[in-house]
Amino acid sequence: MNHQKFYTTYSSEDSCLQIFKHHYEKKLTHCSKCGNNKLTWSNSFHGWRCSKCSKKYSLKSISFMKDSNKSFKDWWEIIHLICHSKKSYSINEIYRISQQTRYETVYHMVLKIRQEMGKINQIESSQYYTPIRFDKRKQSRQNYTRMTPYHLIVTYKKTKGRKQDKIRLTLSKSGRKKLILALKKCSSNYPFPKLLHANNTLKTTELKCLEKCPILPKWENKLRNNIIKLIKGTYHQLQTLHLQGVLDEYSFKYNYRYALNTKGELFISKALIYL
Fold first, then answer.
1. How far is CA 102 from the centre of its chain?
2. Of the residues 83, 98, 128, which one is the last residue of a structural domain?
3. What whole-number distance in Å separates Cα of residue 151 and Cα of residue 91?
C-alpha cells in the first residue's frame, strides 16, 4: 500500500481505531481480576469493561502505546511508515514524510515501536544462537564504517521451510558494555531515559538456555552485508544507544519478508498485551 492510498483509506480516527480494536480484542480473552470471559466494548474511553467486576481495560493501557496521549491515527501512521518499506527509514525521514509537527514526538513513537519489535523477535527466535563477526581489517574491500560493530549475536529458530526462519540480531557482550556506558553519560539530560534503560537486549544468562549452532556461510554473509548497508546507507551517524533498535527493526522485517499481509497489521497482531 503506497502513501496516497494509505492516507485515503485511513483518513479518520475511527478507521484507525478499528484496526487496533480488531487485533487486541482477540488477545484480551478474560478479566485478569475475576477471570470473567465477558468483556464489553465502551466507546467512552476506547476500551473494554468487565461485566462482573467492572474493571476497565483501555486499549492504550494494555498495549505498547501506554503512557501516550497521541491518537490512534498518529500511531497507525508511524507504524505504516516504519513497516511498509523493505528498506529502513531514519527517524528524520519518517518525521519529514509524516503529518507530525514535532520531531521529539516521532522519535518517542519510533523508539517504542522498535522496542516492541525486539520483544516479538525475542519470543519467536529463542532456539539457537551463533555470533557473527565483522572483520574490520577488510575495510577497504567491504566499506565498513566507524559505527559497524565488531560482532553481533544471532538468535534464530529453524522451521521446515527456510523462508520462515525467525531471527533476532542482538548486541554482543562488548556492545552491551558500550551501551551501559553511553546510558550513564546521557541519562541525566536525555528526554526519554525510561525507553533507553528498557532496551531489551539478550543477557548472557539467557544465552545459556539456547543451543549454540552455526549458520550457513551464505546466510551469514547475507546478514553481515545487509547490516553494513543499513548502517552506512540509511543511518550515517548511528549512535550506540539506537543500534539495538535498528537491529530489531531489521530483524522483524527480515522475519516477515514473504508475508502476504501488510507488515503494519502483522506487527499489531504480534504485539504483546500488558495486563
1. 21
2. 83
3. 25
